[in-house]
Structures are given as C-alpha cells and as structure tokens.
Design a protein that fits this description.
The complex is a heterodimer. Chain A is an alpha+beta fold. Chain A folds into two domains: 98 residues, Ubiquitin-like (UB roll), CATH 3.10.20.30; 129 residues, Orthogonal Bundle (Fumarate Reductase Iron-sulfur Protein, Chain B, domain 2), CATH 1.10.1060. Chain A has eight helices and seven strands, in the order ββαβββββααααααα. In chain A, strands 2-1-5-3-4 form a five-stranded mixed β-sheet, with no helix packed on it. Chain A has a two-stranded antiparallel sheet with strand order 6-7. Chain B is an alpha/beta fold. Classes of the chains: A alpha+beta, B alpha/beta. The interface between A and B is large, with 58 and 63 residues. The structure holds flavin-adenine dinucleotide, iron/sulfur cluster (2 copies) and FE2/S2 (inorganic) cluster.
Chain lengths: 231, 587
C-alpha cells in the first residue's frame, strides 16, 4: 500500500516535504495506526503520537486524505491511495505528524473546565436525576483529540480569541450540569465578539469528530442560554 | 555535560488516576509539585477503564465494606495484605463520594444516587448472593474519572510537565531517594528534578505480552527505574489475563457486559461457565474464567476455523440497555471485531490485562524494601501508588473495579503521607556527585551504537516469548526455557540501535528507553514465575495444580542485580477486624 506522509524535523530539515512509502501490509494491520507502526519499524524517524490504540485517549489525531481523524480507528482498507497523511491543520508543527497543542489546551483551560459548587458537600453523593445526567451525555465523552477545533475555519483565523468547538463543548458540559453553580459566570466568560460568537455554524467540527459528538448543537444551546438571560 | 537542575517539594512521575489523585492532595496543600507524564494527562491509560469503581455504597443491594474486604481477600487467593485491604475497603465510599463532589459524571439511579452494577467476585454476606458494587459512568468510567481528576487539578493549579519521560531514579549512599532524571521529549533535553519526595505512579506494563489490553505507553517504566536503582519488585509472577479481549486484537470488552447479563458460549452454543463455576458462573473471578476459556479452547470447543476463541453473547440484553449502559463496547465491537453486538456475539479470547505485582509499598504509599533491616523498611523519600505499586491489595488476582479504587485510595493516602513527611524533612538532601552518570552513559550508548538491532524487532521477540512461555497456564519446561530466552532478549536489548538521532521529539529514542524497562519487567515476571511451585490466583502451574499455603503463602521479591529472589511474609492481620484465614476458593 502506498502512503505519502508529511515530514519535517526542525533539527535537520529547512522545510517540510512529503515522503512516499510503499509497504506490504499484514492481515493483522487493520487500522491506519497499525500501518504507521509498520512503517516506523522500518523507518524509525517517522514521528507521531499514539497510546491507547482504541480511540479513547485522543493522541493520534491527524489529517487523513484531507479529513481529520484518529489513525487507530480508521480502517486502512477503505482509504484511497496514496494515503496522504498530514499533521492537524492550523496548529504549529513540532515534527512530522506531531503538532503543538498549546493553543488548543489554553482555550480548553479558559472555560474553567471543572465543576464549580461552593456549597459544603454532603456526606454522600450530590443527587442528580438520570434525566439531569443525560444532559451531560454527548459532551463529557470528549477525548480532547482536537480533530474538530483544527477543522474549524474560525479557529484557524483566531486561535487566540475563539474558544473553538472542543472548548465550547466542554463549556456546555459544565453549564448543563445540575450540580454546577457558575452558569452566570460561565456565560459572562463567553460574552464577547470572538470567544463564542465566531462560530458561524459551518459544522466542519461535527463532521470531524471521531467520537460522533456534536459541538455545533452544544454551541447553539449556549447561544440560546445567552439570549434567554438577556430577556 | 552540565545538566540543568530544578528543585521541587515533590515530583510525581505519572499523571494517570493515581498520580493525579496524589497531585491534587499536594497542590491543594500548597506544596510545590511537578507532575511528569509521557503523554498529556488525559491520555493516560486510566482513560480506557470501562466497567466501574468498587465501593460498598449499597445503592442497589445491601452492602458494607467488610463484605467487600472479604471478597478482595478471597479474590487475591489469600496473597493480599489484609491491613492494606481493610484500609482500602473502609475508605472506598469516601473516595467515591469525593470524586462525585469533584464533578464525576456518574450514571444515576431513579432516586438520583450513583448507579451501580454487579461485577465478578462481588458477594453479600461473605460469599453469599451476588453484590452490586461497581459505580459506573456507562462503560467509560475511567475516562470520566481521569478527566474529572485532571479538571480538578487545573482548578488547583497543579504544575504538569507534559511529554516528559522519567529516566532514572536518584539515590544517595544511604539509599534515600532524591529525585529523578527526565527527558523532555520536545527538545531532547535531559534534566534533574530534585525532590524531597518522589512518587511513582507510572501505571502498568502489559506491553510485555503480545496480546494485551494495555496502551503502547504501558511499558513499566517505574518498575524499570526502581529495579535499576536496586529496589526489588514484588509478586511479578501474578498477571491478570482478562477473559474477554477482542479476539485477534486485544482491545478490552469489559466484564460489565457480563455484569449487565451477557454470557460466554463455546462452539456448541453451551454456556460453559456453569461447569467451572456453578454458583457465580460468568461472574466468577477473572483467573477462573480465563482458565475456563483456555481449557475450552485446548479441549477443542473453541469457535472459528482455528477453534481458538469463544463468543460473548449480549444481544438478549436488547438495544436499549446496550446503547445506554454499554455504548463504548458496542463501538469497539463494531470497529475492532466487525460485529454489532445488538445482533451478534463478540469473538473473545483471554488477553494480558493487569499487573498485580509491582514496587513494594505499604498502605501509606511508602516504598518498602529490605535494604538495611527488614523487608518492611521504608525507603526514605520514595513512594509508589497505582498499578506500578504492590501494596498488596490484589494479591494473586485482582477483582474487577478494585483498581480504580486502589488508585484513588492510595493516591490520596500517599499525598497525605508526603505532606506529613515533608513537615519532618523540610530540606533537600545534597545530590551525590555521580547522580547522573549511569543515565548519561545509557543515553550515550544508545546514540553511539552501531550495527545494533532494531528496537521494534527485539520488542516483538520479547512479547512473543512472554506470551508463549508465561501465559494463562504455565509449564515447568516452558518456564525454564523462558528464563533462558528472556535472558537472551535482555542481552540484545543492551545493543539496540536507533537510526533517528534528532533531538526533537525523538520517539525512536523513547521506544528504545522503554524497552530497557520492559525487559526488567519481563525478567522479573519469568524468573518469579519459574520459581513459584504452586498454583495461586492468576499463576496456574500445570505441574503444581494446587495452592500450597505451607510453602508459598508469601510474597516474592525479585532483585534485578543477579536476578535474585527473596520472599517476605503476607500480612494476614487486618487493622481492626479478624483475619480471614486461607480457605479453598470456590465460586
Ligand atoms: C482496558 C482496561 C480497562 C480497565 N477497566 C477497569 C475498570 O473498569 N475498573 C478498574 O478498577 N480497573 C480497570 N482497569 C485497570 C485500571 O484502569 C488501571 O489499573 C489503572 O487505571 C492504572 O492507573 P495508574 O494511575 O496507576 O496508571 P495509568 O493511568 O496507566 O497512568 C500512568 C501514568 O504514568 C505516566 N508514565 C509512565 N511512565 C512514565 C515515565 N517514564 N515518565 C513519565 N511518565 C510516565 C503515563 O504517562 C501516565 O500518565 C482497566 C485496565 C484496562 C487496560
Ligand atoms: S460549527 Fe462553529 S465551531 Fe464548528 S466548525 Fe463551524 S464555526 Fe467552527
Ligand atoms: S469534540 Fe470530538 S473531535 Fe472535538 S476534541 Fe472532543 S472528541 Fe475530539
Ligand atoms: S491511540 Fe488513543 S485515540 Fe488513537
């Protein structure tokens, strides 16, 4: 199978280039990550992040034939050749398929991604009905892979100002939590021309999410909350 | 070469559940702490835990910590230390409630309390009816927990060193631990992190086996570092093989599937667990179920053209239960087994999963080693918690959902112990002059090596050897050959070569350094297993099928230097309650 992979090592390369690899896959190489590991066993300089190999840790997000996805849960069989692999767009490249995620995490941290509840905790659990818990479904499962945010044109233009779909989905996760007491503060934090409102509902993020989550819908709900509190 | 040096009150190596629970305790107490991780914290393998966390909340069926304690002692095949087990089970409710207060998105019962499901080995009334003890967030409990702990650490302003790899431990002449050397992957820079307290929370090492539920990063680095620094490794022959890894791939299918009512079938469509465990059936302890699967395969009742796997049936649970309680499992089955469990059973086989052994520690999280006076002597400045540690609460076999509990309880306990110890020892000890000699030599060797072997190739041979010689059932001659073969692999590890010499994010170098750790773990495992002439928990010897309490009710200690073994007694005396004396284990 033929692959064309983005290569760049600042230690030795002046500029990035695409390198072709022709490799023989084994039947056990089902996922793209298996293929990349096979390539790496031949050329150990190919650099990428990976850990869980089952789509839960969010390490191996990359751009696969023009779409963002996780290598470990992308079957090789369906891919058009040569399989073109690039680092996630819109973030600085450290080396090969490894990007610098600082900006992404900065935006995540900016939404205060933790429960805020200043009441003294009870002896046992805080109660929450199954319906209230269900509000968190589709939001808490995010694995912070950045497939969505790095597919979002609004983030490409304003990575320092626009929170981006992943961060906003998590903002919603806490706004929606019946145990959280900081809704007003959280909405204030997003009330600005960029942080939330740069989203133009282009939906790239929804297409990109390998976990089937829907940041656009969460962003819509936050916008509704904003509207509701002004009336 | 001058190496940069930074000083902290405490350095934690590992940002999984254990490391982050400890970090939280320290950050909230205002200590200056550095938390190192090879990956961004939420990418640690705790993220993959599916089924739940054990605590006798009694939200569904009546329960109490003493029953939980009994189950854990029995599950451990009496090799668990009963003081530590009592300590853990008594604190379970508290740490789970605390996690809920931190924001953990647990599933809920109609009355708003935390959802609980049954799991293997859980009983009421000391071996009576099935208990319902696993607190769950669908089948993503580990993910929910790890993210919650990370979030809470963000709130506490914990300082993370992301993509920093701990390389080696620094000990002085007295044997006290003074910190670690570490590699910043992005720049290739090596640094000394000096600390009054050094805590290892580096997780498991399942990557010593070919088929494993563990992540690529689970390479036993903490154990390798400890072993190279002269600290023994405890009970390394005890590895849990999970009965239900996806056949041919190894990705885990949680026991929660059987907890929710799924069951195993052989090629004749027989529910074979009834024969092996008439009472608990599919929810017998994991060692029992894995041996049953292996026996079915060996006796020709396996499924598929090679008769080498079994089937896990859950379609009878219905689409609603599967989508609500087991959505992650369904996703895994569709992606990795190419079956939709709503319609079809999942092909499964036993897969290496959890390391019961590790760095010997007590229930305060302190590392204990026989280096001066006796086996329980505290190594000053050194702590270990989580899967890399052996407290031992899991003994010869861990019960499902007890590990997420272990990492919370002992993560917190170690944090508290460090806070106390630092009050007594508020100063840094001076570093020995040769603190970095060995690690620099190791790095220099790797960079200079010519005509050496490929790291991936040696790693594959290591994993295949462990798989073939030290699996679910163990045979005297295979173990003996295994010791020789792993010794040969160790020779080759010392001469691996990497072609990539870049300073920037050199993952080839990282993998070579990981192999140094894997081989320590593999050696400890094989040597310890070869010596233990009995069957106990997960260690099943073909030539010694019975447990032998007269000779073997003791913990193994493996020393890397000279590949020497020693033993120490099991702590049979709990903290406050009566001891549970060893009995035959029937499920
Ligand atoms: C698929 C799967 C499902 C499971 N399900 C359950 C379950 O439902 N319930 C249950 O109780 N248990 C379960 N377990 C077991 C349990 O998840 C683990 O034992 C537990 O999460 C380990 O936590 P830890 O914090 O010790 O290690 P980990 O979460 O593995 O974290 C290790 C940390 O150490 C870091 N690290 C390692 N080496 C170095 C180094 N050299 N330098 C710097 N950092 C380093 C890593 O980056 C990582 O941050 C499961 C295990 C697996 C594999
Ligand atoms: S919907 Fe909003 S967040 Fe998603 S890609 Fe479009 S602009 Fe970005
Ligand atoms: S929302 Fe989806 S794509 Fe975006 S970071 Fe989370 S898991 Fe990844
Ligand atoms: S390796 Fe973890 S998501 Fe792909």
């Amino acid at each position: 199978m033929r692959f064309s992979i983005y290569r760049y090592d600042p230690d030795k390369d002046d500029k990035p280039y695409m390198q072709d690899y022709d490799i023989e896959l084994e039947p056990s190489d089902r996922m793209l990550l298996d293929a990349l590991i096979r390539i790496k066993s031949i050329d150990d300089s190919l650099s990428l992040r990976r850990s869980c190999r089952e789509g839960v840790c969010g390490s191996d997000a990359m751009n696969i034939n023009g779409r963002n996805g996780l290598a470990c849960i992308t079957p090789v069989a369906g891919l058009k050749e040569p399989v073109e692999l690039r680092p996630l767009p819109g973030l600085p490249v450290i080396r090969d398929l490894i990007v610098d995620m600082t900006q992404f995490f900065k935006q995540y941290h900016s939404i205060k991604p933790y429960l805020i509840n200043n009441d003294p905790p009870p002896e046992t659990e805080r109660l929450q009905s199954p319906e209230e818990k269900a509000e968190l479904d589709g939001a808490y499962e995010c694995i912070l892979c950045a497939c969505c945010t790095t597919a979002c044109p609004s983030f490409w233009w304003n990575p320092d100002k626009f929170v981006g779909p992943a961060g906003l989905l998590q903002a919603y996760r806490f706004l929606a939590d019946s145990r959280d007491q900081a809704s007003a503060e959280r909405l204030d934090n997003l009330e600005d021309p960029y942080r939330l409102f740069r989203c133009h509902s282009i939906m790239n993020c929804v297409d990109a999410c390998p976990k089937g989550l829907n940041p656009t819908s969460a962003i819509g709900k936050i916008k509704d909350m904003m509207v509701k509190r002004t009336v | 070469m001058a190496i940069a040096r930074r000083k902290f009150d405490a350095v934690i190596v590992g940002a999984g559940g254990a490391g982050m629970r400890a970090a939280l305790q320290l950050s909230e107490a205002g200590l200056k702490v550095a938390v190192l991780s090879k990956v961004f914290p939420t990418r640690s393998h705790t993220v993959a835990a599916q089924g739940g966390i054990a605590a006798a909340l009694g939200n569904v069926t009546e329960d109490n910590w003493h029953w939980h304690m009994y189950d854990t002692v029995k599950g451990s095949d009496y090799l668990g230390d009963q003081d530590a087990i009592e300590f853990m089970c008594r604190q379970a409710n508290e740490v789970v409630y605390e996690l809920e207060h931190f924001g953990m998105p647990f599933d809920r019962l109609e009355n708003g309390k935390i959802y609980q499901r049954p799991f293997g080995g859980q009983s009421q009334n000391f071996g009576g009816a099935q208990a319902t003890r696993s607190c769950a967030a669908a089948d993503r409990t580990g993910h929910a927990m790890l993210h919650t702990l990370y979030q809470r650490n963000v709130r506490a302003n914990t300082q993370f060193f992301v993509e920093w790899m701990g390389l080696d431990l620094i000990r002085d002449e007295q044997g006290d631990v003074l910190g670690v050397t570490a590699l910043e992957m992005e720049t290739g820079e090596v640094m000394v992190l000096q600390a009054k307290a050094t805590l290892f929370a580096t997780g498991g090492a399942g990557r010593i086996f070919h088929a494993s539920t563990n992540a690529f990063i689970n390479t036993g680095d903490g154990l390798g570092m400890a072993a190279r620094a002269g600290i023994p490794l405890e009970d390394m022959e005890f590895w849990q093989f999970h009965p239900t890894g996806v056949y041919g791939v190894g990705v885990l299918i949680s026991e929660a599937v059987r907890g929710e009512g799924g069951y195993l079938l052989n090629k004749d469509g027989e529910r074979f667990m009834q024969r092996y465990a008439p009472h608990a059936k599919d929810l017998a302890s994991r060692d029992v179920v894995s041996r049953a699967l292996t026996t079915e395969i060996k006796e020709g009742r396996g499924c598929g053209k090679d008769a080498d796997h079994l089937l896990l049936k859950l379609d009878h649970l219905g689409a609603d239960v599967i989508n609500m309680r087991l959505p992650g499992i369904r996703e895994i089955a569709i992606k990795f087994a190419r079956v939709d469990p709503i319609n079809e059973p999942i092909p499964v086989a036993p897969t290496a999963h959890y390391m019961m052994g590790g760095i010997p520690s007590n229930f305060h999280g302190q590392v204990v080693a026989p280096y001066k006076t006796g086996p329980e002597e505290v190594v000053q400045g050194f702590y270990a918690v989580g899967e890399c540690a052996c407290v031992s609460v899991h003994g010869a076999n861990r019960l499902g959902t007890n590990s997420l509990l272990d990492i919370l309880v002992f993560g917190r306990a170690a944090g508290n112990q460090i806070i106390e110890d630092l009050k007594k020892n508020p100063h840094h000890k001076p570093l020995p002059a040769d603190a970095t000699d060995k690690v620099l030599a190791r790095l220099a060797r790797l960079d200079a090596q010519k005509d050496g072997e490929n790291v991936a190739q040696v790693g594959t041979d290591l994993r295949k050897t462990m798989q073939a010689h030290c699996g679910v059932f163990r045979f005297a001659d295979m173990l003996k050959q295994g010791v020789t073969k792993i010794g040969e692999v160790a020779e080759r590890v010392a001469h691996t070569e990497i072609r990539d010499k870049s300073r920037v994010f050199n993952t080839a170098r990282v993998e070579a350094l990981e192999l140094d750790n894997l081989v320590e773990v593999a050696l400890a495992t094989m040597v310890s297993a070869e010596a233990r002439n009995e069957s106990r928990g997960a260690h099943a010897r073909d030539d010694f099928p019975q447990r032998d309490d007269d000779k073997w009710l003791k913990h193994t200690l493996y020393f890397s230097e000279g590949r020497r073994l020693d033993y120490k007694p099991v702590r049979l005396k709990p903290l406050t309650v009566e001891s549970f004396p060893p009995k035959p284990r029937i499920y």
